[in-house]
Amino acid sequence: MPKAFFVDTSRCTACRGCQIACKEWHDLPATETKQRGSHQNPPELNASTYKLVRFSEHRIDGKVEWFFFPEQCRHCLDAPCKEIADGYVEGAVVQDKKTGAIIYTDLSKQLSEAQCDEITEACPYNVPRRNSGTGMMMKCDMCIDRQQAGLIPMCVKTCPTGTMNFGDREEMLALAEKTLVKVKKDYPRASIVDADDVNVIYLVMDKPELYYEFVTADNSDTGVGKGMTRKNFLAGLTKPAKRIFG
Ligand code: SF4
Ligand code: SF4
Ligand code: SF4
After folding, report:
1. Nearest to 52 by CA among 140, 122, 132, 112
2. b or e along 62-97 (b: 16 or more beta carbons within 10 Å of the residue's beta carbon)?
3. Residues 6+ apart with CB under 8 A from 188
C-alpha cells in the first residue's frame, strides 16, 4: 500500500529537529552558513540537506504572522524528475513499488551536469540537487532503509509537535481532511496542497505563496517552457521525455 506524509504546518514550531535528524540518519555533513537575518539555515536545500525548515514573516490584517514550512521531496505519484531521467539513464531514478517513494540511485552519476540541471528544473517543487563531488543527484529518500526495517521516517519519529505524520496514503488523506476542518476555524484560508499528485501532503494556514515560491505545483514553472506548470507538463508525458525535449 502506498505510503504518505501528512505535514500540518499549523503545528510546526520551527524547532528544526526534523532537519537535524534527517542529516544524522543519513550521515550528511553540516553546511557552513552565516547570519543572514533569518533563522532559516542553510538558505536553500543542497546535496547534503534533504530537509529544510523554511521561515517567512508577513503582516496580515495588522498582525505579524510567522509561517514555517518543513520542506522535502514530495514523492510525486507521477514524478517529472523520473520522467526526464528515464529518457537519459534508465534506473537513475526509480519508484519503490511498495511505498511509492521516488529514489535516486548510484546510476544518477551517469547523468551529465546539464541533464541533472534539466531534472532539477523539471521538478515543480525545485527539490533535487547534484553533488558536485560525486556527480550523484541527492534528495529525500523517504527513509526507505528505515521503512524496510519496519521503522518510520526519521523526521516523523523526531517531530515533537505532531506536525509530521506518516502512514498509509488513505489514512493520511483522511487525517488531512479532518485536520483542515479544525484548522479552518482559526485560519479560514487554510488548504491542503496538491494532495492528488504527491505523497507528501501539506496543510498550509494561508495562501501557499506566503510560505515560499514552490509550495504548490500550480504556481511553479517547470523551466521547460513559459507557463509550463506541473499539471500541463504531466499532461504532455505520453511519450518518453527525451523525445519531448528533443
Ligand atoms: S518533488 Fe521533485 S524530486 Fe521529488 S519526486 Fe517530485 S519531481 Fe521528483
Ligand atoms: S523522510 Fe527521511 S530522508 Fe526524507 S526528509 Fe524525512 S528524514 Fe529526511
Ligand atoms: S521537528 Fe516538527 S515542529 Fe520541529 S521543525 Fe520539524 S516539523 Fe516543525
Report:
1. 140
2. eeeeebbbbbbbbbbbebbbbbbbbbbbeebbbbbe
3. none
Note the pLDDT tens digit of each residue in 193-243: 999 999 999 999 999 999 999 999 986 655 444 445 555 555 555 433 433
135-162 residue pLDDT tens: 999 999 999 999 999 999 999 999 999 9
Instruction: Determine the residue of 123, 138, 198 to mutate for testing ligand 1's pocket, defined as the one with the most ligand atoms within 8 A of the Cβ atom.
Output: 123
Tell which CATH classification among 3.40.50.2300, 1.10.238.10, 3.30.70.20, 3.40.640.10 matches the domain 80-143+220-244.
3.30.70.20
pTM of the model: 0.91
Q: Which ligand 2 atom is at minimum distance from the Cα of 18? A: 7
